[in-house]
Amino acid sequence: MGKQGFMTIFHKTKSLGLLAGLGLLSACVSFGGAEPPPFLLSLTSGMQVDAGAVRAGPRAGALVVRLPSTPQKLNNLRVPVQTGATGIAYLKEATWVDKPARLFQGLLTETIAAKNNRLVLTPVQAQGKADTYLAGELVNFGLDGPSLTVTVTYDAVKMRQGQPIEKRRFEVSEKVFAAEAGPVGQALNSAANKVVLEVADWVG
Predict the structure, then answer these.
(1) Helix (H) or strand (E) holding 3
(2) How do residues 2-33 score in pLDDT, each as one tens digit?
(3) Nearest-CA neighbor of 141 among 200, 192, 95, 89?
(4) pTM (2 decimals)?
């Protein structure tokens, strides 16, 4: 075999090896273009502020709802599933439109404003001049796999100018019929709405 023929076979063999290597790599690593989830989960308040409703007053009299803190398991767009005493996985095809803390903050703001007919501001809007603040931690916001139960736990902290700080835990659990994105998302929305209604009554 001549040198030219040998080099042709060498290049063909090298190309086939490269393609085989890329095939193995693509099975382990995503190069982008992944399909989006079939749908995204969100939270919807059972009580809505009417369109065109106006609430006015001094910033000092407003309620400020701060962004809740969360454990690391909730610091993403996934739905955590407790698989055992120490094991945590994430529910397949269940993706939030935003991180749970921001969704829950929005639910608190909308529900309290509608239910209590009061001026509710974000920290940016209040510019540090409000007298009442609602803070806290969203402790649980996921599914317990063995029992098929979703739980929403919120440790609320109420701070009022010139008054003692108050802290209270609110928790609601609901059963689901399947560990799937649809029923779990609906149950979490229902449980979260029940929690924020209790918080609205407490904070005034």
Answers:
(1) helix 3-26
(2) 544 434 433 443 443 433 433 433 333 333 44
(3) 192
(4) 0.79
CA distances from 81 to 5, 17, 39 (A): 60, 41, 19
* Token pair belonging to 149: 């139960």
Whether the CB-CB separation of 176 and 189 falls below 8 Å is answered with no
Q: What is the pLDDT of residues 39-85, one digit of tens each?
A: 799 999 987 665 555 555 555 578 999 999 999 999 999 999 999 88
Give Cα 2 distance to the centre of its chain: 66
DSSP string of 28-43, one letter each residue: TS--S-PPPPS--B--
78 contact partners, CB below 8 Å, separation of at least 6: 90, 91, 94, 95, 96
Tell me if residue 59 falls in helix, strand or coil: helix
Max Cα distance, the chain (Å): 95
Specify the length of the chain in residues: 204
Q: What are phi and psi of 139, to 5 degrees?
A: -80, -50
Burial class of residue 104 (count of CB atoms within 10 Å of its CB; 0-12, 13-18, 19+)? buried
**Strand-pair partners of 145:** none
Q: What angle do CA 58, 64, 70 make, to 5 degrees?
A: 170
For the chain, counts of helices (H) and of strands (E): 4, 7
Handedness of CA 86, 199, 62, 103 (dihedral sign): positive
